[in-house]
Structure formats: structure tokens, C-alpha cells
Amino acid sequence: MAVIPEHLEAALKDRYRIERELGRGGMATVHLARDLKHDRPVAIKVLRPELSARVVHQRFLREIRLTANLQHPHILPLIDSGEAGPQLYYVMPYIQGASLRQRIARGPLPLAEALSVAGDVAEALDYAHAQGVVHRDIKPENILLGGPGERHALVADFGIAKAVSSDSGESLTEGGLSLGTPAYMSPEQCNAEPDLDGRSDQYSLACVVYETLTGKPAFSGPTPQGIILRRIREPMPPLDELHRSVPSSVRLALEKALAEEPANRFATTGEFVGALSSNIRESPGARLRRIGRRVRPRLGVLALAGVFLLAGIMIWRGSRAAPAGPGAPDPAPAAIQAPLVAVLPLENAGSPQDQYLADGMTDEIRARLTALPGLRVIASGSTARYKGSDRDPKQIGRELGAHYLLGGKVEWETAASGHRPGRVRVSPELVQVANVSAPTTLWQETFDTLIADLPALEASIATRVAHALSLEIRGNPAQTVGIPTRRNPMAYEEYLKGQQILRQGASGPADLERATRNFERAVSLDSTFAGAWAQLGWTKAQLWQNGPQTDTTLLDGVKAAAERALELGGAEAEVRQVLAFYQLMRGNRGAAMQETELGLRADPSNARLVGYMASFLELDGRWAEALEFRKKAVALDPAAAGHAAGLATNLLWLRRLDEARAAADRYLILGPTNPEAYQLRAMVALAQGDLSAARRVTHSGEGRIDRDELLAFTAYYWDLFWVLDDAQQGRLLQLPPSSFYSDTLWWQIVRAQVYRLRGDSSKSRLYAEAARKAGSAITRQSREASEFSRLALANAYAGKSDEAVQAAETSVALLPLAKDALIGAQMVYRLACVQALAGRRDDALATLQTLLSIPYYVSPAWLTLDPSFTSLRGDQRFEALVRAGESRP
């Protein structure tokens, strides 16, 4: 057992009780201690004596004070520092979890897990770089993993490398003392260049990402000098060491981040990680949700419905969702009592190139289970994150709210010649995890079958699960779960390959066209393959959505493929989603809703269809009915941020504010990098009359999202420019139109609003006049309600009161509440704003009375904060309206 130095104990005895040594590193010895004042465990790092002797103590303590001010969810804070006799020390919270180094020792990380860690580290680095702090020693040892499943990364030792450098700029790499770690140092750091910036940390993080994916360092050697020499001779690590399953986007991003010259790397670490994940973590649904948000203020009713529907429709099988964080509320409504099963990703026990087979079988078995009466099946988005996970089954059950887990292994045999004999070995296992003291296997079996017979086997597995759960299957079990005829093996393989492209988040035309070709080959080989026809319709729908939307033949192809699948039978829920998309894009909202209803009859536990139905009901003003669908969607797909957002929005519109707050908090956990999550949570605070809380929420987002994006988003959507504080408003006024998604008109309106709020009427009118001219030109060409609404705001801030009211009234007439209860309500709100700004008190009060009588986020307490209604405050009728609204249940 290591002996604790007496001088260290003596120097720290009044503040810390040192318990034991945790480990030794190149720069320091780490001790576990008890903080006597706060009664908490801490980690004390004591610099090695020979290093302390060479470090200028005042410089060290000065640098430590600077870095101690870094406050970020992914930065391990420094809580104390000082001198213990001849040695220097610093104190951090003690984290019970492994370091990334320990995690890598168990083997390479799955791609999703590696990118999740990289994303957390990048957020911490971007935040520190914005504060002028460069880490200088990013390596697996300085990345700690905590939280459920060790998926929350914390970066330790910020600024320490600089703190131990000498004032003279002397290199500390001599004599075995390293300023930074050679295996991860950037070329400029190896050359001891004094002025490092964030791109040096980016290079180091790229080395770490490489190691997480391969299990070995990008650069290695017998000595630190040897590693540095190799770095000079071989500036790029051998990227061919990456497994071929690693997408090209990852390889290209690593290549750029590992460029020898800093100027050739990404501008920020966040951009690097964004490029890493560009075709992996962002599903088509996430992409369309992002695009949809950007155009929302200008959407008419049908286009808006399309955005809401597509936000769910594009989340096809295999979409990825953020993991549920600690403290997330139980998502399952008590009213739903049917057993809840989670189908975990099947383990690929064969060649890595056969991963698509395991993933495809997982999806197909899940689809069969959804046909069982009396059973609920958790959506794939919530279970995909457990691929390759060694997490305890009971913990998985708790996180998902599941009663049973279905998992297993798949192996596709390959003959000695290298050719496939077409045999597949499948070993499923059903485990009970709820209401038992330990996970209990209810059923387990091994099957050896031909690939041509896999569809029948997948259905057979579903019926065996039903028997194990004592579920009653009336009639023919084969018909209940949809057992198909024997499939052409080549057609089935093409189908599974196409599915894998979609599952990996295909969002660009090239990926979608590849998937389309796979499905076209599948139906060419087997024209009775309903599932392949459904997927073919879906990829064509995505191609249409991602293109200029002028190719009507492509949209006709969507309908033809879907109708062929419907004629064949066996994939009705998926087909109805495709047909709902088709009808919506044709402007037939009623028909799209009917297709959604038919899809739900085929698969009542389809979380996507449940979410679509909620959106349609909300558009019809049936918010209370929609709420039940929102709750059910969250129960069926508990880790999906989109469903959490839908529930929070519904509750906010119903003014059930305590429940809305809980739901919005959950959305923050599931979507911490989505600006909409912070805006929605801030809106709940405003509805509760707490502007300070709303601003705190917005500020908290600055540590997780690019600040400029967050500020522009907040001002751009739902007219919340006034939530930003003075400093944020000042920054907002510096942003160019490109920050507002190149929407120059809205950029002009926001500037007019902010300048007026800050008391600069001349600049406000200047930008309002520009917006008024642009808006007038647009409305001469378009009859969209939202365009007249924007013109109304521009006129109001330009002092054109009559024109403002007229334009606002036109917007309400074009999009009445009976036609669209969502955006139609926003038209009513803006009419009230314009009337108040124009001095039309009587009209404004009457409009507000209507607004408070319908579901909408504006509450009586909100009216007391919103600057649009400053002119009404003090009016007895306004105060009475607020009091009357507050008294309503």
C-alpha cells in the first residue's frame, strides 16, 4: 500500500483527510480524500516533486485560478489549489467511474458511443476556447466517464499543462517531464510553439477518437522522443486501421482534423464533431425537423402539417435518439397496462460485414411483435442505443420502463470457400426484468435456418414470445403475426442492405439513391415482397422531400410503390405512413389523417403513428384528445426527444404548466443540443410569470449550443426576442442575416423589435421600413397567412398602424383557428400585438380575450411580461382580464 507523505498530510489536515492513493501519472500522484468542510469525497492531485521544483509556483496558482472559473456540464471543475510544503496540488470532485483509458482497455467503442463521448468533449472544449483557455493535454486519461452506463464524459485537468510550463517558455519535455502527451500532441505543440489555439486541442481529440474506434493510439513509439519523431515523419495516422464499417464521413472528418497545418483543420472542435456525425447521428427525421423549424414562421397550414408529420415519418426504423438522462421522469402513463417489451439490437456473432443482417432481423422481429394483440413494443429509437452494451438488464428495463427484454445473437455462416451457404443461426432470449428480484429468462432457443426462411422464422419467434407471455392469439397465429411465404434469399439480402442505409441515417440524395436501388433490386427479384415495396415508396418519398419537389413522377412513384405493398399485405403500418406523406404533400390533410388512423389500426403501438395522430388532432384544435396520444407516444418511445417535445408543447398550450415544466425538463435531458428544448422550457417559465427563470434557462443553453445559433433561434421563433437579456440582445444585433437562416426579412424585423425595446426608435424604424418594403413585395406574390403576419409586424414597428392592422386581420382571415388551431392561434396573437402597438386598445383587449379562451402558450402571467402589451398595463380592463384568466382552472 502506498505511503502518504507526512508533509502532505500535515499541510492539508485542516481541510482534507487523505484516505489513500488512487494512482500515479506522468505529472502527479492522485489521492482520494475527504473534504472536511463539505463532507464529500475529492481527488487531490499532487505534482511530482521534481516537477514542482521546476514550476514557478505563482504562475501555477495564477493559471489554476483562471481555469477554476470554467463552469460547464462536461468540465470537471477545479475546487481548490495551493502549496503543500515543496509541492503544488489541486483538488477536483471525485468521480466514481472509469476513465476513457480504462474503457478503451476493454476494447474499441461502438461508433455511436465513441461519437457521444467526442460530442461531450467537444462541447467542453468549445466552451473553454471561447473563454480563451486551451487544454493542451487532451487524452483518454483526462476524459472521465460517469452517469448511467458511463456515457457522460467529463474533461479533467483543464489548463494544467499550461500551469506547469515555465515563464521562460522552457520546454518541460526534457528529462521525462511532458507538457502535453506526445501520443496526442499536435504538430505545433510538438514543435513547442508558444501560441496554441483551440485547433491544437481539436487535433488531440481527433487522436482520441481514432483510438476509441481502433483500440490503439494513432501514434506510438518506445520513447516520447520516438513518438514525436514519428509524428514529424508521419503526420497522419494510418486511417486504414479503421474498420471498413466506419462511414466515410468519419474518415474524412478525422483526416481534416489531423491536418498538419492548423489552418487546414476545422474552425472549431464542434465543427469537427459535427462533421464526424453528419451521416450517423442525425436521422432523416432530425434533419427535416431542423429544416422544418427554420421555415416555420412562413408556413401555411398544409406545409406546417407536413413539417409536423415529417418530423415523425422520417424517423424510420433504426433512427437514433439521445439517451435518457438521470432524473428523467417515468414516461409510461399508468393507464396503459399491457406488457411492454423492448427488442434490443441482436448481437452480430459473425463477420462485421454482416451487421446489417443482425440489425435487419431486429427490426423485422420487432415488426412482428407489434402485430400481437395485448402487447406493447418499445420503438427502435429508444432501444438502438443499447447495441453492444453490457449494461445490466434490470437497469435497461428501468430506463425504458419495459417489463421484458428480447435479445440474442445472429450468425451468418460462411463456407470455407468464402461463399455463403445461406444458413443463419439465430439464438433469441426473452428475459423478464420487471417485478422480479433478478433478470429471469422466460424463453430461449437456437434456430438454424436458411436465409430464404428468415421471414417465417422472425414471425415464429414472435409467436413463441406470445406463448411465453401467455398472450391469447385468436385464429391462425401465422396470420396474426403476418408470416410471409418463403423469400428469395437474394431479394431479402438486398432488402436488408437498403434498410441498413436508412438505419444509419441516410439524409443525402446519394445515400437515398443507393437505398432506392437496393429496394428496386429486391422487388425485381421478388415482386411479392410487400416490405421491400413499402421501403421503396419511402426512399422515393425522401428523395422527393430532399429535392426541388417539382418531379411529380417521383411523387407518383411513392404512391405506386405504397399501393403495391398494400395490395400484397404484410407491412400495412409502414405503408400507411408512406401514403399519409403522399396525401399531405398533395394538400389532402384529411386523407393523410385517415391513412394515419388506418396505420394505427394495423399497429396501435407504432409510436410514430401515435405522434402523427396527436399532431393532426392539435391542428384541429382537439388538444385534450391529442394529449392522450402524446402520452402514449412517450411511453412507447421513451428516449425520443421529439415525443418529449410534443408532450411538453401540448401541455403548455393547455396551460397545464406544472406538467409542462416536467415534460420540458425531460426534453432538455433528451435533446440538450437542440435550441428548441431551451426555448420551450423558457416559454413554460414565461407562462408561469417568471422572466428571470426563462433567462436562466436560455443562458444554460449557451454552454451546450453555439451561442449565436441559440440567440437567433430564440428571437426567430415565437417572437421571443424580449426574453434575451441586454448582453444577449447586443450580441443579437451583431449577427448577419445568415445567422437567421438567410431570412433577411425576419432579420430586419428582429432588429426593429430589439432596437425599439432598447429605446432606439430611429434604428427601429429604419429596419422596419426595410422589412415593410420586402414584406409588401412578398405578399404581392403570396397569399400565405404567415407572410401577411410578418408584414403586419413590420408595418407596426414602422409606425404604419392602419396598414399593420389590416395585414394582421388578413393573416387571421387566411388561416382561421378552425382551419389550423396551432399557427392560426399565432396569427391571433400577432393581431393582438399589432393592435396594442397601434394604440387600438379596445380591439387588442377583445383579441386577447379570445386568445386566453383557447389553448395557447400565452397565459395571463405571460401578458404581464410581454413588451408588446406595455401600453395596455394600467388599463383596468386589461388588469381585470389578467385576473380573470388567472382565476380559471
Secondary structure: elements and pairs:
Layout: H1 6-12, E1 16-24, E2 28-35, E3 40-47, H2 49-54, H3 57-67, E4 80-84, E5 87-93, H4 100-105, H5 111-130, E6 143-146, E7 152-155, H6 160-163, H7 187-190, H8 198-214, H9 224-233, H10 248-257, H11 269-276, H12 284-295, H13 301-313, E8 340-343, E9 347-348, H14 355-370, E10 376-377, H15 380-383, H16 393-400, E11 404-412, E12 423-432, E13 440-444, E14 447-450, H17 454-468, H18 477-481, H19 489-503, H20 509-525, H21 530-546, H22 552-568, H23 572-585, H24 589-602, H25 607-619, H26 623-636, H27 641-653, H28 657-670, H29 675-687, H30 691-701, H31 707-716, H32 726-732, H33 744-757, H34 761-781, H35 785-797, H36 801-814, H37 823-837, H38 841-852, H39 860-863, H40 876-887
Parallel strand pairs: 8-10, 8-11, 9-11
Antiparallel strand pairs: 1-2, 2-3, 3-5, 4-5, 6-7, 11-12, 12-13, 12-14
Helix pairs in contact: 5-8, 5-11, 10-11, 12-13, 13-23, 13-25, 14-17, 14-19, 19-20, 19-21, 20-21, 21-22, 21-23, 22-23, 23-24, 24-25, 25-26, 26-27, 27-28, 27-29, 28-29, 29-30, 31-32, 33-34, 33-35, 34-35, 35-36, 35-37, 36-37, 37-38, 38-40
Word description of this protein:
With 889 residues, this protein is an alpha+beta fold. Strands 8, 9, 10, 11, 12, 13 and 14 form a 7-stranded mixed sheet that branches. Strand 4 (80-84) and strand 5 (87-93) form a beta hairpin. The longest helix has 21 residues, at 761-781. The protein is globular, with a radius of gyration of 30 Å.
